[in-house]
């Protein structure tokens, strides 16, 4: 059982344009979609499509369009009533695969709602193998919400009364379906900015940043002095001066940044690098190799939710006891499939092209110092 936590869910509206976005002009949509979203919700949608047991936890009233949509598509969830509408986020896509995203702030949560949400999560996590904490925090939630949750999840112990509760689908909570039943849930975090920095320092088992989020995290955890200092891998460029686009094509630098962050609490990292694939950096001391994944060029329709599909792929492979290489392959295949689908559609098993993905042990480039 994998629980997902989405503190700031959204109704995701996607508008598909027949031409590139023209700022300041009136344009007609070629198609439009609305889907229940927010990163954790997407992960649960992808896990459900892959046939895994998952429970999405989110704030939201039972009549909110996000929750009613989850009921319609059969994704098990629990909503914490907050008496306010959830946000609507807009994605605008064009035929070249360019995605423009506008995300609302989300409803204001008061202290009681924040505490109630944490309590709901801790109860649902009992007996879960993984908890995926994903997305931005809504107004009112403290920046260290994920960090505190990680600590609380570590201390969370099974409780028979809780495992007999029911979820929104009316089914009994699965409670225990895997080897982690007697332990606290492993924690994966997919967030950004200050919430990610605070969470990463609390030592979740896995983080899933993209290039931009990794740069932000490095700056927050390591500061300028770390960016200048040579890490375990030779660094051709200081983190302070590299752009996310440059970082995506420089996996040696990605590894160096992750290594720096690992000195500040980060454990394993799955770094998604858009068209340039992904890097899986194991937790320090695990003895596992760093792995890289890549694939052939892809016709991109919408990048919204591709990272969420990747994390879902990693978790679903982990759930069936797959090796790190197969976790990375599944992550990459699911992310690619999501990018080739419209809106924030989550791929199902028929959409995956696992054989397109190449996974190899990563050898960092060393700077030529001979000259
Ligand atoms: O504002 P956040 O929480 O950072 O991101 C929210 C969001 O952009 O993330 C998902 C895609 O990853 C979408 O479903 C959703 O609209």
UniProtKB/TrEMBL annotation:
PROSITE patterns documented for this protein: PFKB_KINASES_2 (PS00584)
Keywords: ATP-binding, Kinase, Nucleotide-binding, Transferase
GO CC, any one term: cytosol
Carbohydrate kinase PfkB domain ranges (all copies): 25-159, 185-346
Statement: the UniProt record of this protein carries the keyword ATP-binding: yes
Highest taxon of source: Bacteria
The keyword Transit peptide belongs to this UniProt entry's keyword annotation: no
Region (Disordered): 158-179, 331-371
Pfam family, one: PfkB
InterPro entries: Carboh/pur_kinase_PfkB_CS, PfkB_dom, Ribokinase-like, Tagatose/fructose_Pkinase
GO molecular function: ATP binding; phosphofructokinase activity
Recorded family membership: Belongs to the carbohydrate kinase PfkB family.
Name assigned to this protein: 1-phosphofructokinase
Source species of the chain: Nesterenkonia cremea
High-level lineage: Bacteria, Bacillati, Actinomycetota, Actinomycetes, Micrococcales
